[in-house]
Design brief:
The complex is a heterodimer of chains A (128) and B (871). Chain A has no helices and 11 strands. Chain A has 128 residues and is mainly beta. Chain A has a single domain, classed as 3-layer Sandwich (Rieske Iron-sulfur Protein), CATH 2.102.10. In chain A, a hairpin with a 6-residue loop joins strand 8 and strand 9. Chain A is globular and about 40 Å long. The two termini of chain A are 16 Å apart. Chain B has 871 residues and is of the alpha/beta class. Chain B is built from 28 helices and 38 strands. Chain B has a 5-stranded parallel sheet with strand order 3-2-1-7-19. A 5-stranded parallel sheet of chain B has the order 9-16-10-11-12, covered by helices on one side. A 5-stranded antiparallel sheet of chain B has the order 21-22-25-24-23, with helices on both faces. Chain B is globular and about 100 Å long. Classes of the chains: A mainly beta (128), B alpha/beta (871). At the A-B interface, strand 3, strand 4 and strand 7 of A face helix 19 of B. Bound molecules: flavin-adenine dinucleotide (FAD) and iron/sulfur cluster (SF4).
Chain lengths: 128, 871
């Protein structure tokens, strides 16, 4: 899931915003959006022990997917590089281990789009 | 011929070859290819002490190519074909009536067919004093060895003769550090090949290189000191040049003395007279190569006509109807002192009614002339300073070119794109004249046989494997043919950039761009601009910026600003990612030398953080199994003890291995450990297209395995030999000699240039071994650039390296000083203190290994990872 962070305008000073991702029907706080480096990701520990990977792109949009690399089982997706492909410039992350690409909006593995077992779970993102 | 003696009881026919030079060897190979060596005895009488070698590249010996590398005789070739080679036993007489040859040692060898391949001898003008100590000719390996020895004691050298070989010899003397004079009797340099304009352009360029040129004068006398050594040369205009050394290169004379003594006919200007099948006036005696005067009366002083004669003669001996040799094209393209010089066809415009079309730019030292017939036929030409178009123009000789000749001489940038492409060539145009490969054959190799690169086409047709002057034209043909076949040749780096890594490097360097984003938005493919880039271009551009950082004003730290977002995870955490998501740590141990105290620190750190330890192939210690959040604490201890990053995670210099060298080893001739440490400290942190490995051995026993490294150094009694392009791993390759007997300073300067040239021109993830095979002109070209400065960029390369060395700071020490960078070293952004529960270990041989069961998903097996380990 993707949400726009950059255009956010505030009319009066508010406590610094917090990025949250949805998991199992609840919102999990992540960090201040300013703490993220555009083009890179961070790992998030979810209350049930699962892990998510959160990225922010150069336009300030945030994306959240599962952190486990389905090809190796390692929890490393957050350490992959962000890219965009195609005329629509769809953002993707490349696994740092074996370099498969995953679409950040759908979680689908672009190297094996028909295999749901190789897709990443996608988490909704919001700013509060 | 051979048939006669085979009849009945007579012994096996015997072919005796006199002379084991370039053409003699080629002739024996041609015999073997035709099966003659299986049927007949082949005896080769050689005057020199070494089997045939590549005389054409003799000058490269000064640059470090060894005698072994110059050899033309493949290992085991003579044994396999039963060829008897008698070294240092030249023929001294021929008895045609008895059909025998007598050798210097007194052996008498009977022949069925005798083949003379005695080559030619340098002409030494009859000047008084020419026998003095310090006078040399330039023809054999013995000659160049003697010249090098003498040059070591000399300051000035003088070459008599300003032709092709004279200039080559002068270039060699200059590279040996001598003040060098060239004396040429004609009014211009290379009078045989180029016209007045071309000679003028050549002279200016040659003078810029520091050579002193005297034209229109000859040598008159060589003055000699009391000890009989050369002191100076008096020229025909009365002037005097002081010199310690004289090299005669005033033309060649065919070695026809044996033939004359045996009563064989010789040509008007010397040379054993032969017909179009290479038969002399005695049909059982053949002559080939530079000792023969061909059926057109010409003595050819080039190797390609000699090779053609070798094939013709071998056909005759094998009893085949061969291609007769009527004469040859004397077109040449060469690089003299880094200057391209080419001439082809009727270069001097001797054909009646011929017109010249000339382009000259004396500032750039470029001169181009085409000779065109009244009907527009291209008759020949001269190219000096820019011979790019030679590969296409030469095959067009004799036809009307597809574009007006004025356009054909314009420099590349000014030529309309359509003017002259490979498509312009007729199918039967000979593109590679060394191996007689036509355009049709090259096109067929691509279109019909599916060859898709110059290397593949070279392997199946031979095109481009001779003098190399056609490689560019072959490349254009291959690309054009692939494109015509619908195979798009997109050399772009990735989906975001249409440029190659090298092109991006030039853009970043010249525009001083310090951001991937700026580069993408201004120079990316239109559809990629404004996007994120991808996992290919980000690290590549990150590496280019890091290589150039001091020169373009970027922050030298790979985690500074936007650069942090470009790095692969290894560079991002300054450690090596392992299969379970943990990282390994390799502190630098320069040259593999380490104190007991530091060894203890590594042991303590590994014990305290529970790390698995292993000795790497690069003489250092790798500690495995650290979580991201442990890295700063581990490095704080290491930095405190004086360690710094080993860059095992980067496409950068890894290690410079060393043997113990002369300090401890009884064989060592130099201090290899000190040199390895110096080099490792100099190049540490240099980001490159791929990892770089090196080693220094203290003597020729090579215990450090330098020959398998990107740059390897082997000590000699006189200094260091430098080898480049070696590789271990999956496709092992021995490094090749770049230069020999270098002093410490020369060695470092040459490595500076070599590495920077590699960093600048290699493709992404291209090791030096692959780069050397791919780059046009191969090692020779690289040597031209980094040793002879043929592109004039060596100052720049050295300056870039100097800037890198001056700006180097340990990445880990800087990271530890910077809280913002340190904040990224957490397993979880929302739980900074919590370790990653998926990184767990199980015991293994007194240490531990990753516990993969925690990673195994419900359905998927865990795949293995390969090729990601540091050393
Ligand atoms: C420095 C240099 C650069 C050159 N550059 C080029 C170039 O760029 N392009 C090009 O096309 N050509 C070039 N040439 C010329 C090329 O090397 C010759 O054309 C080629 O070597 C001729 O081959 P060959 O076998 O006829 O003679 P050689 O290679 O000279 O071989 C003749 C051999 O016969 C031996 N011999 C002579 N008499 C006897 C005897 N009685 N018994 C036994 N052995 C005997 C000699 O010792 C010698 O080893 C260059 C030559 C030199 C020296
Ligand atoms: S290479 Fe030479 S100096 Fe070095 S260890 Fe081996 S034998 Fe000794």
């Amino acid at each position: 899931m993707t949400t726009a962070l950059a255009p956010l305008t505030r009319s009066h000073p508010a406590p610094s915003p917090l990025l949250e991702i949805g998991h199992a029907g609840a919102w999990v706080p992540v960090c201040a959006p300013g703490a993220l480096v555009p083009g890179r990701g961070v790992a998030v520990l979810l209350p049930d022990g699962e892990q998510a990977a959160v990225f922010v792109d150069r336009h300030g949009d945030a994306h959240a997917v599962g952190n486990r690399d389905p090809f190796t089982g390692a929890y490393v997706i957050s350490r992959g590089l962000l890219g965009s492909a195609g005329a629509e410039r769809r953002p993707f992350v490349a696994s740092p281990l074996l370099k498969q690409r995953f679409d950040l909006a759908t979680g689908v593995c672009l190297d094996a789009p028909d295999d749901p077992a190789l897709a990443l779970p996608v988490h909704p993102v919001r700013l509060r | 011929m051979e048939g006669r003696d085979v009849s009945g009881r007579s012994p096996r026919p015997t072919v005796v070859v006199v002379g084991h030079g370039m053409v003699g060897q080629r002739f024996v190979e041609e015999l073997a290819a035709r099966g003659v060596t299986a049927r007949a005895r082949v005896v080769v009488l050689a005057e020199e002490s070494r089997p045939a070698y590549d005389r054409v590249h003799l000058t490269s010996w000064f640059g470090g190519t060894s005698a072994e590398e110059l050899s033309l005789v493949p290992d085991g070739f003579l044994e396999e074909h039963g060829v008897e080679l008698r070294l240092e036993d030249p023929a001294s007489a021929i008895d045609r009536a008895a059909r025998t040859v007598t050798t210097r040692s007194g052996a008498v060898v009977g022949y069925t067919t005798l083949v003379l391949a005695t080559g030619s001898a340098p002409f030494v003008p009859p000047l008084p004093g020419r026998e003095a100590d310090g006078c040399f000719v330039y023809r054999t390996l013995d000659d160049v060895e003697a010249i090098r020895d003498a040059a070591a004691r000399a300051r000035t050298g003088l070459v008599v003769g300003g032709g092709l070989l004279g200039l080559e010899a002068a270039g060699a003397l200059r590279d040996l550090g001598l003040t060098t004079h060239v004396v040429e009797f004609s009014p211009r340099l290379m009078a045989l090949q180029v016209d007045e304009g071309g000679g003028g352009a050549l002279r200016r360029t040659v003078e810029k290189l520091g050579l002193v040129v005297h034209t229109g004068v000859g040598g008159q006398e060589i003055t000699v000191d009391a000890r009989g050594a050369v002191e100076g040369v008096v020229l025909s205009d009365g002037s005097r040049v002081e010199t310690d050394l004289v090299v005669f290169s005033a033309g060649i004379r065919p070695r026809d003395e044996l033939a004359r003594a045996a009563g064989l006919a010789v040509g008007a200007r010397g040379g054993v007279a032969v017909d179009e099948h290479c038969r002399t006036s005695d049909p059982d005696v053949l002559a080939i190569g530079e000792c023969a005067a061909a059926s057109d009366g010409v003595v050819y002083g080039l190797v390609a006509p000699g090779y053609a004669m070798a094939a013709t003669a071998a056909d005759l001996v094998a009893g085949r109807a061969g291609r007769p040799f009527h004469g040859a094209d004397t077109s040449t393209k060469l690089k003299l002192l880094g200057v391209d010089v080419a001439s082809f066809g009727d270069a001097h415009g001797r054909t009646e009614g011929a017109l010249d079309v000339v382009y000259a730019d004396s500032r750039a030292g470029v001169y181009k002339k085409l000779v065109v017939g009244a009907d527009g036929t291209l008759l020949g030409g001269v190219l000096v300073g820019d011979a790019e178009s030679y590969g296409l123009l030469r095959p067009l000789t004799g036809s009307v070119p597809p574009a007006p000749p004025e356009q054909l001489v314009l420099p590349a940038g000014l030529t309309p794109a359509t003017a002259l492409g490979p498509a312009a060539l007729p199918d039967d145009a000979v593109v590679c004249s060394c191996h007689h490969v036509t355009k049709g054959a090259i096109v067929a190799a691509v279109a019909d046989e599916g060859r898709a690169s110059v290397a593949e086409v070279r392997a199946c047709t031979g095109a481009g494997s001779g003098c190399g002057s056609c490689v560019r034209a072959v490349g254009q043909l291959v690309d054009a043919e692939l494109a015509a076949g619908g195979i798009a040749v997109d050399n772009g780096l990735c989906g975001c950039f249409a440029q190659t890594r090298q092109e991006l490097f030039e853009i970043v360097a010249s525009l001083r761009l310090t951001s991937h984003r700026a580069l993408l938005d201004a120079h990316g493919r239109p559809e990629a601009r404004g996007g994120e880039g991808c996992e290919v271009c980000k690290p590549t551009v990150g590496s280019i910026i890091a290589s150039l950082a001091p020169a373009i004003g970027a922050d030298g730290h790979v985690l500074a600003g936007e650069q942090a977002a470009l790095q692969d995870t290894n560079d991002h955490f300054l450690a090596n990612l392992q299969k379970n998501g943990s990282y390994s740590i390799v502190p630098r141990i320069p040259g593999g030398e380490i104190t007991p105290e530091k060894l203890i620190v590594i042991g303590e750190v590994a014990r305290d953080f529970g790390l698995y330890t292993k000795i790497t192939g690069g003489q250092r210690i790798d500690m495995f199994g650290a979580r991201v959040d442990q890295l700063p604490a581990i490095w704080a201890r290491l930095v405190e003890a004086g360690f710094e990053s080993g860059h095992a995670y980067g496409k950068a210099l890894r290690t410079v291995k060393s043997c113990v060298g002369s300090t401890w080893c009884r064989y060592g001739v130099q201090d290899s450990v000190r040199m390895a440490i110096d080099l490792e400290l100099r190049y540490r942190g240099l980001r490159a297209p791929h990892k770089l490995k090196s080693a220094v051995s203290g003597c020729a026993r090579e215990c450090a395995e330098a020959m398998s490294k990107d740059f390897g150094i082997i000590a000699t009694a006189g200094g260091w030999d430098l080898y480049v392009g070696g590789n271990g791993g999956a496709s092992p390759r021995h490094a090749e000699s770049l230069a020999r007997d270098l002093s410490d300073a020369e060695l470092v300067r040459l490595i500076d240039r070599f590495l920077m040239f590699y960093v600048r021109t290699a493709d992404r993830l291209e090791r030096t071994s692959v780069w050397l095979e791919r780059i046009g002109g191969g090692l020779e070209h690289v040597r031209d650039v980094v040793v002879h400065d043929s592109l004039g960029i060596c100052d720049e390369l050295e300056a870039q390296m100097a800037a890198h060395v001056a700006a180097y700071r340990d990445e880990w020490a800087r990271t530890l000083e910077d809280p913002e960078k340190l904040a990224r070293f957490v397993s979880f952004v929302n739980a900074p203190g919590t370790p990653d529960p998926s990184v767990r270990f199980v015991p293994e041989r007194d240490q531990h290994k990753p516990d993969l069961t925690v990673l195994a998903g419900p359905t998927l097996p865990v795949r293995t990872l390969e090729g990601s380990n540091p050393s």
